[in-house]
Amino acid sequence: MTTEHPIFSPERPEDRRFMAAAIRYAMRNVGRTGTNPSVATLIVRDESDGRGPRIVGRGVTALGGRPHAEAGALAEAGELARGATAYVTLEPCAHHGRTPPCAEALVRAGIARVVSAAADPDPRVNGKGHGMLLAGGVSVTPQVMAGEAARTIEGYLTRHRLGRPGVTLKLALSRDGRIGVRGGGQVKITGPTSDAQTHLVRARHDAILVGAGTALEDDPRLDCRLPGLGDRSPARIVLDPHLRTSPEMTVARTARTVPTMIATYQSSDAGRRAALAVEGVSFVACVPDPETGRVALPELLEDLAATGITSIMVEGGATIAASFLDASLVDRLILAEGAIEIGEDGLKAPIDVDGARRRFDLLRQDVFGADRWFEFSCGDRL
Questions:
Q1: In terms of residue numbers, what domain contains 145?
Q2: Statement to judge: residues 21 and 54 lie in one domain
Q3: Against a cut of 0.85, is the pTM above it?
Q4: Which residues pair with 58 in a beta bridge?
Q5: Annotated binding site for Zn(2+)
Q6: Catalytic member of 11, 70, 91, 337
Q7: Which residues make up each annotated binding site for NADP(+)?
Q8: Based on the number of CB atoms within 10 Å of its own CB, is 187 exposed (0-12), middle (13-18) or buried (19 or more)?
Q9: In angstroms, rounded to a whole number, what is the distance separating the alpha carbons of residues 235 and 313?
Q10: What residues are designated binding site for substrate?
Q11: Last residue of one domain, picked from the residues 85, 118, 152
Q12: Could you give the CA distance from residue 280 to residue 109 in angstroms, rounded to a whole number?
């Protein structure tokens, strides 16, 4: 719903249709734009030929974060941008950096109206982009589908508001609420469609995190194996405070292909650290929580945010999942429930679908073959 404010223009009937298209377009580069969010801009012109509005320019934040979406859309529209409407999934920036402010570029191009979605918490932008547009004579309609747009850039928003990356926890559950068999290696729980969805989610995150137990037991690749998306594998983080990861493991042997980081104590084995570094593994220091004795996750996430990581997908086992849940560090929860039952000998999940419904807001529910896929959000953080 549009914010009520005398200086803003009211929402029009077509605005949600074009903003929804812009949000879908923004998904193209999610996870590939560095510390900048993946934003989309559509330039829409209502011609006088009676055929209604049409898109004359579109842009999405480029790989690495530059140029911004507005620049691409304006370049494609050219002179057709004059008098047109720009739909932008995030408030246009208002500060001078390596390029002039996008709000200024929209004014110079003769855009008559800007419809924006999510607000930008960056103090250099928050409200200033809209102010620059209004000062330039541009009509502004903010907050159109703001919640939907925010979900596509929740890592960026979380990093600015909470000083840490956004966290998605993903668990595959058996129908009886188990995630595997203790000491029994990997158990196939979900089918190929759910597995493909998991790889798509990986491609949309900056990093994927597992615990040392998962890494040692499964020796996983932790990459994106969808056709054509191999280059979108996220960085890998192994939470291994006592440095049990060996140079022979897959995550170490492939560290020069897919960036791999191990979070470990400063006191961990120096010889093993050196051997892993030879393979291309990097390290981030972690410290124990004085109350639980486990790794202090808030401090670790702050340090990871300082490296430029804005979104992390946690795919660890029960202990890692429970630690993130107990610390209230899960922003999005994905539960993929398979049709199999593991039985009483199985490892019980730290949260099931019923528990998630009580704690989180259900965003999406799908059926993939014999599997059920649930996505939940902690809606009060964005």
A1: 15-152
A2: yes
A3: yes
A4: 42
A5: 68, 93, 102
A6: 70
A7: 172, 214, 218, 317-323
A8: middle
A9: 10
A10: 202, 222, 225, 315
A11: 152
A12: 47
Active site residue 248: no
Regarding whether 214 and 198 lie in a shared domain, the answer is yes
Residue 9 domain flag = no
Summarised one tens digit per residue, pLDDT across range 213-270 is 989 988 999 999 999 888 889 999 999 999 999 999 999 999 999 999 999 999 999 9
**How many CB atoms neighbour CB 296 within 10 A?**
16
Instruction: Please report, for residues 32, 33, 68, the alpha-carbon distance to residue 62 in angstroms, rounded to integers and kept in the order given.
Output: 8, 7, 6
270 Cβ contact partners less than 8 Å away, ≥ 6 residues apart: none
Work out whether the CA dihedral 24, 304, 323, 157 comes out positive or negative.
Answer: negative
Give the number of residues written for the chain: 382
pLDDT in tens, 321-365: 999 999 999 999 999 999 999 988 888 999 999 999 999 999 999
Identify residue 174 by its one-letter amino acid code.
Answer: S
Provide the annotated binding site.
Answer: 68, 93, 102, 172, 202, 214, 218, 222, 225, 315, 317-323
In the chain, helix, strand, coil percent, each to 5?
Answer: 30, 25, 45
Nearest residue to 89 via CA among 127, 142, 135, 36: 142
Shared domain check, 172 and 143: no
The total number of structural domains in the chain stands at 2
